[in-house]
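Worked example (supplementary).
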Amino acid sequence: MSVGEFAKILANSNHFQVAEVSIATQLSVERFLHQQAEFLDEKQWDDWLALFSDDGRYWMPAAEDQSDGEGLPNIFWENLDLMRMRIARNNHPQAHSQAPENRLCHVVSNVIVENEDENGDIIVRSRFHCAEYLRYEVRNFTGKYRHYLKHTDSGYLIALQRADLVNREGPYDYVLQWWL
Amino acid sequence: MGWTDKTISALVEPNRAHRKAYVDPDLFELEMERIFERLWIYIGHESQVKSPGDYYLAQVGRQPMVMTRDHNGEIHVLYNRCPHRGTQLCSARKGNAGRRIRCSYHAWMFNLDGSLDRIPASEGYDGTDLKMDAPEFQVQKAPRADNYRGFWFASLAEEGPDLESHLGYAKTAFDQLIDRAPGGETEVVGECFHMIQQSNWKIFLENQLDASHPGATHESTGVAAMTVEREMRGVGNEPPVAYGFLSDFARLGIDGWGKFGTVGHPQGHCTLEGYMGLRPDDEDTNEYVRLMYEAYGEEQAEEILGVNLHHVLVYPCLSVQPPLQQLRAVRPLGPDRTLTEIWHFRLKDAPEAIYQRALGYYYLVNSPSTMVNADDLFNWWKVQHGLNSNASDWVSFHRNAGFDVVEDDVRKSTPGSMSEMPMRHMMQVWKNYMASNDGEK
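After joint prediction of all chains, the assembly is encoded as:
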């Protein structure tokens, strides 16, 4: 499936559905999400990249009603190439807007598995709160995650992560240099 | 302090500007009065109000305005204020008001052209001197509103040059945004991004045409993009054209930007000649050129595509990048705070790949997660801080000063230079607008 198809599935499926999953599945999905947040907060970039499938995508739509990221303005719409570019750029000694670098602190909660298919692939929704310290100030970001996770022998991989910011249409004071 | 024409004029010298022009709150108020609430200011594109009843908010200087489309299809620019008690009439950024705009406070009803339709329980006004058809009880219109090929502007001055005279050469920006479409039309895509800069509005305009900054400011992004491009080619993948917009920063280096000329026009508008390999020899571009030939004939199509512009600054309110189908509107919020609305356009009947290329630039350079403007915004914030300092009163624009080429009120940078001509030019124009007030000389 293409990333566009994953995007449509996430947009069109029932956001209120609750799947009857085993405690083990619930725990491993939660652990996955918590670990992803930890990799961001601790800037463990190799570990972060390894969470995504080869054609996986991180998506932050610019509008609520977006059912695809392709061909539309987005806040983030990044494949592994762009993620690698962002990591290399932010770690470059002349990336002066990241010097000193920011700090992030995530809390991920309200984890509800929405669907588990016969292959063990998961659609899961959760809420996040993230504080960022940069330029002597703290900014707060909050929103809703929806992940499409592929089940593999070595664990879950992100086919698509959709992050809907509460203030997605609002004015942005400064910019987001790292994913949330 | 009380500013006079004389003290304002003293802030601008041929090669430098006084820091007060960027930080003084009283001067900021005067800029709003004498520049933003007098000149033609961009409101929006007609495709933002497609249907009767549609409205879209806009800011002109300090004035909250709203663009509406009435039920005859006409577009109006109104002050967003109820003539009764002052309530803001349209509160969402955009929407459809239906047949009438209804004030949320006392349900006065207005037509989309601003005229008062009715007042509930209007007998309460019988025998008073409120007359429903008196001008003061209509929603006030911008003194002047006009459009150039669907791009709407308003001027809050009753008199002055008309829109086309004010735009002058800058009309090319809009001609290019439209004529580069094989279908001869353009329309906005999605919602614009709203970015707040912690710096003075003039710093943004100056940066747009500052040829000596890209290689320095954006080195990190250029190097990272070049690395990813190389890695992709190493495994047999051709990187998207838009990545090249970033790797250019590293390829051209700090001193490689001199080949792109800048031009200053008498109204304050400035242009930077294009550089972005706008007609690479690839399948998508060739298909696009073929469609342009089909639509316009070879000669006219070449004329349209031959206009080589990267940036057109429409003074004081717009930065337009026609070949990349985007436009940034400047809305000053205070001496050290500026909102930009970043709009993106789709060219009718252009191949999807051409759109995607421009969208790639929009994303990489202008989205809220940009890897490019991030460093610009940070520089401007630091400039704003620095200009609060007493270490010096002056900002230097000396690069290639004294070597501009001037012909018929048009000022061009020294060929082959990264001249600071646009900054010098814009400050001279600023002085003319700010310090030419009757009775103060």
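Two points are worth noting when inspecting this output. Chain A touches chain B through 34 residues (CB under 8 Å). Residues 23-41 of chain A form the longest helix (19 residues).
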